[in-house]
Every structure is written in C-alpha cells, then in structure tokens.
Amino acid sequence: MTKEIIHTDQAPKALGPYSQAVKVNGFIYASGQLGIDPATGVMATGVEAQTKQAFANIQAVLEAGGSSLDKIVKTTVLFKDLNNFVAVNEIYASFFEGDYPARSAFQVAKLPNDADIEIEVIAEA
Description:
Pfam families: Ribonuc_L-PSP (PF01042). One of its GO terms (cellular component) is cytosol. Belongs to the RutC family. It comes from Listeria booriae. By secondary structure, this protein is α+β, with helices and mostly antiparallel strands. The chain has one domain (3-124): CATH 3.30.1330.40. The protein is built from 2 helices and 6 strands. It has helices at 47-64, 85-94; strands at 3-6, 21-24, 27-33, 72-79, 102-107, 117-124. The chain has a 6-stranded mixed beta sheet with strand order 1-2-3-6-4-5, covered by helices on one side. Helix 2 (85-94) links the parallel strand 4 (72-79) and strand 5 (102-107).
C-alpha cells in the first residue's frame, strides 16, 4: 500500500496532528473541514457561510490530490445544531450535479473553534 499525504495552502492548516487528506488505493480520505478562510485564518460567520467555506476548502484539498467535488463518494456532516439541517442541505446540494454521494449527518456537542459545521469526504482520486 502506497500512502500519499495531501497538503495545500489553499485550505486551512490542520488544527492538530493530522493531514488535510491522505490518498491511498485510488481514494482520497479528506479530514473534516471547517468554515475557516485559509487566507485569513478567520472562521466565517453563520452556518451558511461556514458551509460554503468548508466546501471551498474541500475543493482545494481534493484538487491538490488530483480529484474534484464530482468524485466524492461519501460525506460526513457534523452539525453543532441539527436545526440547521434544511439550510445546510440547500447549500450542500448546490455543490453537486446529478447523483449525490452517500452521506451521514450528526449533531455533536462541540466542534473545533466553536464551528457550526464540519464536513469530511471520501473521493475517488
């Protein structure tokens, strides 16, 4: 098994001892992305803006690994408040054309940097 670590300055640096993504066996396993602007290090305000920024970060990480949003096969969405499910769904859907990836969604007690949402993905390389 050959493992490739993926890193890009177009997405926020990892907040701990982990990689932005790892490519192995034809797939990219991307760590959860928050709504942090990589240029400023500032968290976007509100769940909608954080969702859009998280997807921009995911896109940057996938592109650094030679993939793209349309190659995502699985997402996991972590919510600070599941009452934001409908609002996030509308934004989430706008990032995909046609077939949607498989997905899990959970409300959690707390996210890093007190974020409203975190999104991780698995994509074909």
